[in-house]
């Protein structure tokens, strides 16, 4: 068993195993399930992610403020974009999961429903662009899950407790670690990518317009998918983050506690409290707050 990232590093080094192997064995011990069953369950979750990440690319969902966002980005990705196909496809898939979530469709919370688009956007886009075998993506999903579990044990993934840094930010950090694994990187690189991604959005508030998980939540799913990819590239380039991952998580926890209630999912601060945000809420019959 492990309590933090330092222990994960130590155990993996002592046993000469990868983090996904450590996390898989831990899940086997905790659940009493065999390896094949756990891998099958993770494959099922990946399939749920895949369906949600694809659905709105062709068929906009009944998602209110964000209806059609995924399809617009997806169509744009085929043209002369500034950031290229991979980035725009990842953004489109993140939007799609957010649309499905907002329309009460089936998603996989990773680590939360509000951040459900980040991890599938990164994993599925890399799988597509690099022709990565599905079994490797399942293993990367296990790694991402293990990293997220460490955050849940030592901090929070709830916007109401820690702001959006704890939701979309942690999702980006999980995805960054998984992306490094898919690129053949080391555990050191995974931890560095994780830390880059989480530090990039340190202090990010949670300010849903009209109290709905739509705006700016969907846009942050898209931007944090990009954050995950650039953080992975930084780590793969040898840009090791100077602060240990455990200390970054603790910093995120402290920052979350310092955020006033207005900036933690109450829809009483940030863009939710702007005149336009209040007007949207009033038009939807949800009150101007």
Summarize this structure as a short list of keywords or feature phrases.
single chain, 289 residues, mainly alpha
Characterize the structure shown.
By secondary structure, the protein is mostly helical. The protein has a single domain, classed as 2-methylcitrate dehydratase PrpD (Orthogonal Bundle). Helices cover 64% and strands 0% of the residues. The chain is built from 13 helices and no strands. It has helices spanning 5-15, 19-31, 35-58, 69-76, 85-102, 118-130, 134-154, 159-162, 168-182, 187-200, 217-236, 245-258, 275-283. α6 runs parallel beside α9 (168-182). The longest helix is centred in the N-terminal third of the chain and has 24 residues, at 35-58. It starts with a helix and ends in a 6-residue tail after the last helix. 52% of the residues are buried.
Give a summary of the structure in a few sentences.
The chain is mostly helical and 289 residues long. The chain contains 13 helices and no strands.
Share of helix among residues? 55-70%
User: What fold name stands as the CATH topology?
Assistant: 2-methylcitrate dehydratase PrpD
Q: Kindly report the average pLDDT value.
A: 97
Main β-sheet, in a few words?
Answer: none
Query: Class, according to the CATH hierarchy?
Result: Mainly Alpha
Q: Low-confidence segments, ≥5 residues, pLDDT <50?
A: none
Structural class: mainly alpha
Overall 3D shape: globular
Terminal Cα span: 46 Å
Number of domain modules? 1
CATH architecture: Orthogonal Bundle
Number of E-state strands:
0
